[in-house]
Amino acid sequence: MKNIPLPLFDTVKLIDEVICYDYLSSDYCLDDIHQAKQFLKLYTGSQGTFNSYRREIERLIHWAALIEKKGLRDLTRHEIEAYISFCCMSYWIFKFFCFIII
After folding, report:
1. What is the DSSP string of 33-95?
2. pLDDT for residue 4 is more than 80
3. What number is the average pLDDT over the span 35-57?
4. Cβ pair 42, 54 in contact under 8 A
5. Torsion of CA 63, 79, 40, 94, to 10 degrees
6. Is residue 70 a contact partner of residue 79, using CB atoms and an 8 Å limit?
7. pLDDT reading at 96 higher than 60
8. Res 3: pLDDT
9. Which of 37, 50, 74, 89 could form a disulfide with 12 if both were Cys (CB 3.0 to 4.6 A apart)?
10. Which helix (H) or strand (E) covers residue 42, if one does?
11. What pLDDT was estimated at residue 88?
12. What's the N-to-C CA distance of the chain in angstroms?
């Protein structure tokens, strides 16, 4: 059974809490996570913005580690374009299933 990616960052109120990332595979770049956390701290004044940025940066870091097996700095242009396609496809799949359920 495959592991389901877990959240990398806590809520806006708990962003300063220390999180142990020992459970992550070696494909994850901890520097990416640290830099993303520093970026997110700039947006703690707006819950909506923080949540949107957190969702997107987590998705990108998980994708880079689980699909490309790389850190963000090592991604090529082709891989970033593949990520954008993945996001677009994910959006339409979500919309399709929401349409069926409703």
Report:
1. HHHHHHHHHTTTT-HHHHHHHHHHHHHHHHHIIIII-S-GGG--HHHHHHHHHHHHHHHHHHH
2. no
3. 95
4. no
5. -50
6. yes
7. no
8. 67
9. 50
10. none
11. 82
12. 30
**Exposed (0-12), middle (13-18) or buried (19+): which is 33, by Cβ within 10 Å?**
buried
- Residue 16 DSSP SS3: coil
Q: Which residue has the tokens 């409703």?
A: 102
In the numeric block, which tokens belong to residue 30? 């901890």
Tokens of 78: 């082709």
Q: What share of the chain is helix, strand, coil (3-state, %, to 5)?
A: 65, 0, 35
Q: Which two tokens stand for residue 101?
A: 């359920």
Is the pLDDT score of 91 beyond 70?
no
Cβ contact 20:51 at 8 Å? no
- For residue 4, with 0-12 CB atoms within 10 Å meaning exposed, 13-18 middle and 19 or more buried, which class applies? exposed
